[in-house]
Amino acid sequence: MVWMHVDMGEIENEPVRPKITDAKGILQQNREFLDFFWDIAKPEQEIRLKAIENLIQYLKTSEKTDELTYTLKRLVDGLAHTREAARPGFSLALGQVLSVFEEIPLRTAFDQIKEKHNLAKKLIRNAAFGNFFGVLALSQSTRLPKEPQVVLECVQLLQSLSQYREHLRDLPRKTMVDILSETSEEVFEEVLLGALQTDLSSAFSTPEQLQLLLVAMQKFPQVLKPKKLKKLLGTSTIITMDNIPKLTDVLKMAARSVKKDRLLPAVALDLLQISLREDNFELFWRETIINGMLKDQPGPTHYLSYRLLGSALPLLTLAQLKQVLNGEVMRTYGEHVVSAQVNDKKYIYALISPPQLPDRFKFAPEMETYVGDFLQGCDDPEKQLAVMVAFSLLTNQGYPVVPSFWRVVQHLQPTALQSYVDWLKDMFLNPRLDSCLDFSTRRQKENQEGGIQRENCIFRLRKWIIPRLTSIAENNQVKREEALVMDVARFVFFHAFFNSKKATPDILETEATLSVPLDEKTRAIIINSFFGLLQHINHLPLLGDSPEVAARNQRHMQGVMADGSMWIFCLVRYADTLLNQPKYVKSTQPFSPEQRQAWDSMLASVGTLMKKSKKGQTPETSAFQQLFLLVGIHLFKAPEDLVDLMQDLQNCMEKAQEKKSKKKKAEEPHWAEVVVDILLSLLSQPSRHIRHVCRTVFSNICPHVTARALTSLENTVLDPDKDEEDSSIVVTDDKDSDKIKKKDKKKRGEDEDDEEMSDASDDDSDEGEDEAMEEGSEVDQNFRIELMKVLQNQGALATEEDGSDDYELDDEAMMKLDGSIAGLFLEQKKKMQAKKDEKDKLKKEKTLVRDFKIKVLDLVEVFLARQGSSPLVLGMVEPLLSVIESGMSSESDQQEQDFLRKAADIFKNQLCRAKQYCKTVGNRQGELHDLLEKLMTKTQKLSDSSVSLYFFSASLYLVKVLRGGCPGPQQMLRFMGNVDVERVSAIFKGALCSFMTRRKSPLSGLMFVDLFTRFPVLCVNLLVTAVEHITTGVREHQQVRLAGSTSTITSKKRHLTLDQEVLGFRKTGQMEDTYWAVMKHFGVIKPKRDRTRKTKDQAEPTAPKKKKGFLPETKKRKNRKKQLPVSEQGAADANTVPLGKPEGGKKKINKIKRKLPGGGETPVQGPTKKAKTTYGLYVCT
């Protein structure tokens, strides 16, 4: 208690504190009310807005008169808050309070603001912020126009705040513009005009002052008449030749002020509107923008010009649009786009780090937004067409700057879209390069000293037009009709394979001839574009907006037109029309008689199939019809390769449609086998369209596929031991196949454009690759020997007889030596290049073969999905496992991993986990049991546990197949069908013993848990073996996992009886819990522990105190030389046998010996391992 008296004494001796005063009235307010102001100052915008809303509601319901006065005072104080985010919050709150509670005079609020934030007494920065946000609050209250005198004083205060630009920048001027836009004409003329006299007179000084004048002219045209402007500015209009230099300087200042914001200053748009109102737009655009802004180096002034161009599109007339879009601003914009793309190419090819090459700003996405907004809001098709044509004519050596896939096309009206397509077709036929706004970059001009070749420009223009046409037909967002899509498809097909000889009204494509013939490169691009378009329209939904079309699209009708005919059939019919008009049309690659016969037979077969399909459509009919059309249309691309294929297809159809079975020759294949071979041949070609059609066709003929047909698939793709070079399928490679393999059409267009723009960069990549090859290659010993021979033959090596290191050759010998060495290095370079080409060739072939196998896996997946209950799927178990095993054991690239992942996914989801599986095995029971034993034997020998999981899953799948379908749910646990239970139990018993006795077993406990759960009958036979191994398992987690399996099955089979003493668990830790979980199913409940506390009387007697200075008995060193008798030693060893292990199973425990300083050694036991709890959690779940 002494310390308490001391503290009390200290308290009594302290001086008396002064009386607390509450000048601000804070202590009189409640906590809920004060929390509103704390939340208003928080940085989170949502919290601030919610606090302002709650504050208004609180003040409306409050009955205290002083709370509104306190609120006004507190909000005015917070206008100069040190926290940046708090100042706008207090300003907004003050504006809302003044707007809701009109009993507060604005004069009172304004006087408080000026008094609290006095610029003469306070810190300049805080006072400036307080005054500005106070005026902003008054402006946001919407009551300011009602009190003209307060408006005047606010404007004067803002004028005085304009000098603090380092703190407020141009915010006071912008606020003045906002106040001016809300002021009435009467107040402006009587009150504000005099106060703003100075700012209006110096309008050409700053962007803010000029914008103030422009807003006043737009808002009050009757006040600022030409005479008044003459008095203020010296001119009656704004856009004059005398004012152009001043306007240019002001716009440059505005451009630099928004450099980081990347937006169009309001003053620039106001100037544009004033020029249109004064009918001086051409003067403004020519002198201020072209001759003023664009004369600066590329930067903010150029970007302002581009933004002004995009913003001007909705404001201009048709004539003005054509004038602006064909001028210098567009040309400069095109140079910017190309240089930005070349900059990216240089970064990629040169592998320069970002700090060495800064990221250049790209304006193209922003311009696309401007054009898209204009097209979306424009109702005039002529203006829409003018803008699209103008941007398409902006070319870099013939190649347009905008991408071939441009999303803004979707906003075109149908009339404008059709006109734009007609214009593209006309530009393709008659390239008018003089109408293009063409330009070349500085590097392009340096590299092309001889001038630009017209033929190259035409090629580049046509190379862009064809993808643009196909992208319009393929884009689902474009409002197109069937006639437009077919028009584009016919145009592309005609110029891909035909030439016009004479015009005829029956073929519209012959009415316009090519002014410049097509070269081979252009035609190859057209061919690839056509087949890409064919791939798209093959699964194109019905076009139109009618309810009938929507209802038919819900049935997933693809590849057909409104009348029910297929798109590809219409194109084939159009191609036949062209072939039958040799007088007017000439084929670029005429058919031979044999090829023409194949074409005619294809048409006849399709006609026959279509007649039969009218009576009733069958999957075989649809499959053959699609195959005939596919092979027929591809005859124009590769006629030599597909003639024999067409004949085989014809024979297949005839065999498939035979009504009466005829005696077949032993060696004659089934028609489905031939179709599968045809599909494999087609899949070897790099075409997404062919891949899609082959998948659909194979899906239709799946019920007719035979074992030999599946074997051909397995030999092609599923047999990893088969040498790829011995395959009968030849995988072809197309030069432009990469275009077809693009996954995203937009990405394809952008890649093509980037490839074209890369022509502007330097062409030193080949030299760089050669240097890298020479530097990175290893030293060739043969080359070194040859080099030494050359040097010795020329006498360039010093010998011992020379006796000096300073050995020199004369000039003639040196020149001769240089020639020999140069020839040797040239030969070595050719050898290295040949090796590199051979390596690249092999790698490319391997890639093509693997890509082909991935395509064939599609057919395997389709068969397993459609015919999962067929006995033929059992033959795919081993080949799929072989693919997975070989893929897991080898290091592979990304394509190999994709192939392996696809094969594993098919095996797991389409085979093992499929709902439909083979339930009738017939006389194959013995074969399946042998296969099961083979798979389980191999499962135990594998080294990779992930691979063994697939083999074990295959074994369970075979057991499921042998069991077949269950008669009913009541017999599901006992029914085993055709399974030889004893043999299968013995197989899994061996696997279980291997799992429990091998330390590095590839098996896992989850496998047996799955086995016991799905087939309880097998678990009954394995239960005794499992229980025995629970106590003798090699690893404890194996015992836990197996005990969990036993617990699972006994929960299902409660009638099982088992000697409880067989379960000899070690009752420690997790094993004890698992033990009692298992015993619970046998009716044995774990006894509860007695938790009663012992009383003091029952407490054990305390041990006597030990004497100090003497060691206890347990610490005394024992005499190790004394040996126990044999009987006692045996008893001691028996006591050390762990619970649950047999006596004969003792293991020597190696003890770690620690050396003592004196040279002795003492045994030290290692740390005890803790049992993992993961498996215990698994069992409990």
UniProtKB/TrEMBL annotation:
Keywords: Nucleus. Its main location: nucleus. It is found in: Nucleus. Residues 732-741 have a biased composition (Basic and acidic residues). Residues 751-778 have a biased composition (Acidic residues). Residues 718-778, 1087-1172 are annotated as: Disordered. GO terms for molecular function: RNA binding; sequence-specific DNA binding; transcription corepressor activity. Residues 1104-1123, 1147-1156 have a biased composition (Basic residues). Belongs to the MYBBP1A family. This is Myb-binding protein 1A-like protein. It comes from Oncorhynchus mykiss.
